[in-house]
Amino acid sequence: MKKRKLYYYTDVRDLPQLSAKEKGILYPVAEQYSFRxxxxxxxxxxxxxxxxxxxxLIIPDLDELESWGRLDPSNEQNYTILPGxxxxxxxxxxxxxxxxxxxxxxxxxxxxxxxxxQKDVLRDLPAAIDYxxxxxxxxxxxxxxxxxxxxxxxxxEKIIGPLREISHVQIIxxxxxxxxxxxxxxxxxxxxxxxxxxxCLPDKKIYIMTHFVHPRELTTPALEAVHRLQKAGAxxxxxxxxxxxxxxxxxxxxxxxxxxxxxGIVPYYLFQCRPALGNRAYTVPxxxxxxxxxxxxAMVSGLAKRLRFVMSHSTGKLEIIGRTDEYTYFKYHRAxxxxxxxxxxxxxSNPQACWLDDYEEITQDYRADxxxxxxGPE
Length: 378
Fold this sequence. Notes:
By secondary structure, the chain is α/β, with parallel strands linked by helices. 28% of the residues lie in helices and 21% in strands. The strands form two sheets. The protein has a 13-stranded mixed β-sheet with strand order 3-4-5-6-7-8-9-10-11-12-13-14-15. Strands 1-2 form a two-stranded antiparallel sheet.
């Protein structure tokens, strides 16, 4: 595949596809919440369709100015050890290694990283490595940002190499949207898969957590980039938020799950859109989302059904495991406090609820290893 150099836009007023009127309307939104896109990703948009899902993912919208949400919706600051290093779950540490993305999703839950680019990103790598080395319970490292794959291969290896030398670190995960926004970052750099291959060991794998949100993002270049990462030995999993106007139809979500599974990308998490500032118009209520995923799963085979519907709440990662007309059921998939692990929450149904905080909890006494009544407390 031929090398391709992309052109980037950081000012909506420079987009030739927008009218002068649209530019004037959208500029204040992009001033408040950063805009970044390239000509490759913009070419996926059907500009004749104002409701085009790819457009909705990347082009600012006036609805973002609605006063709703907060800059740190999962309270990541509460788990920050030092700038750019978080330790929320016992066995997992998170490193924010970049404050740049190839494109900025309009629903981004870390808008603060682009508003205050130097505040949250990792600046002291040796200190972070020392912390991880001294906490032997940490077996998983998640590299995120921003996007780690915007770093040069050399810079990325300076992070991965020292982590691989720590015996108790078994899994290194890289959260990225680069295969979506700029697959040529991978296709144009043969050193990247070679470097990843050096650290993909028989008993210690590198996982690439992709972020395909709509099936049209799975283009020929994107799939070739995915294939090269797989050939290097990396295991690929996809995690996507449920976004209003993008993948909130069961048929669209099923196609995304199906195509990921066909390409060997494990459908891993469907995230409830986090209540970050500006995200109201992108958010689907939880109970509606649960039903959408249920209908989508009915359309796909077993390997595509592995998707879990989860919420990254400040207290932990909760899976939405079921609902009736009266109750909605949550289970702590991971908990910030180990005593909450596996705990099941039974809440009164609230069709408008978009976050756990919107629910009234009925009980706090149920655990995964204890029997509970399917239809609520007796």
